[in-house]
Amino acid sequence: MIPNYTNVHLKFKLDNLSYTYEDLMEVAYSYVKEGLPYQYELGNFLLDWLDDKDYVIVKTSGSTGKPKKLKIKKEAMVNSAIATGDFFNLKPGNKVLHCLPSNFIAGKMMIVRAIILGLELDMVEPSVLPRIDYEKDYDFCAFTPMQLKNFAKYLKSIKTVIVGGGRVSNAIIDLIKDKKPHVYETYGMTETVSHIAVKKLNNFLGQEEEQYFATLPGIKLSQDERGCLVIDAPNLSDSKIVTNDIVELKSDSSFEWLGRYDNVVNSGGVKLFPEQIESKLQDKIKGEFFIASKEDDTLGEKLILVIEGNKNDIDDTIFEGLEKYEKPKEIYAISKFKETTSGKIHRKKTLEALNLV
């Protein structure tokens, strides 16, 4: 069982009451028994956190394959919380907004940070536009890209924002570029116990946005033979974590993310990164979309564009500015993308629905 941290002050906006560490078991049972779905998830996690095991079971998002259940050591979660607190200078009594689902690692870590760092945590129901007290100021919050987009005009009430779990488009960056908070894009996964690297997205107070991800202290990076990122984080994992993310290393603590190894397209001998092409198209296509491939007798793999909606809405002029090999050869449309349980686009299942794999 984890140490009995007593420097704890949790405040849940739900009932505006504060709890010590010793009160958490009673709170957990009450949320499991009577809570709404998001409260039930919180209660279940607290019961897991307070039991005698030295680990918790966490589900992966399933965005790149079938969701998995992983054992994450509580000690690693504590270390991750402390690293985040040190990096963002979070202090006991700081006010934190929690608007993520508590059944995935990002939401669980918001709770752990509050417990370990002695933060005041206001929890609201997860939604694309969280309903909060706009007159209240917060020191820290974690958003998904969609939440950040919808919440952009209210950001003045938050000092520091982190965003993860999906692509942050140029349109979103433009919305927050000159806003008051410090906004950071995060890189991480369930295996790394939330984020292990961050990249500043805006230039509040004249601090320029950053081009590359930089790791939190105590983490070293390398690459395998595929060019994929390898993470050495002894405080988070007993062994090195080999990812499927292709990167360009700038140092052993910074990198540029290029795309997923699983998604790389080899078209006529040219290696293409769908995510890099998507970044060039994201301001030209209003709805959801992604770049993929299908088998081709001549090229081996043919680049395609898959959109949510009506392909008649797509004009060939959107491909201007792309390199010759980056231009999709065909466009496919589907009324609604298949999604993971965490709301991310499930590329493989969407392609299966279109009979493309």
Structure, explained:
With 357 residues, the protein is α/β, with parallel strands linked by helices. 23% of the residues lie in helices and 31% in strands. The protein has helices at 24-34, 37-50, 74-87, 105-117, 145-151, 170-176, 274-281, 347-353; strands at residues 10-12, 17-19, 55-59, 69-73, 95-98, 120-123, 138-143, 158-163, 182-189, 194-200, 213-215, 220-223, 228-232, 241-251, 254-260, 265-267, 270-272, 289-296, 300-308, 330-334. The chain has an eleven-stranded mixed β-sheet. A three-stranded mixed β-sheet has the order 18-19-20, with helices on both faces. Helix 4 (105-117) links the parallel strand 5 (95-98) and strand 6 (120-123). Helix 1 runs antiparallel to helix 2 and helix 3 (74-87) packs across helix 4. The longest helix is centred in the first third of the chain and has 14 residues, at 37-50.
List its traits.
357 residues; alpha/beta; eleven-stranded mixed β-sheet; 8 helices; 20 strands; globular
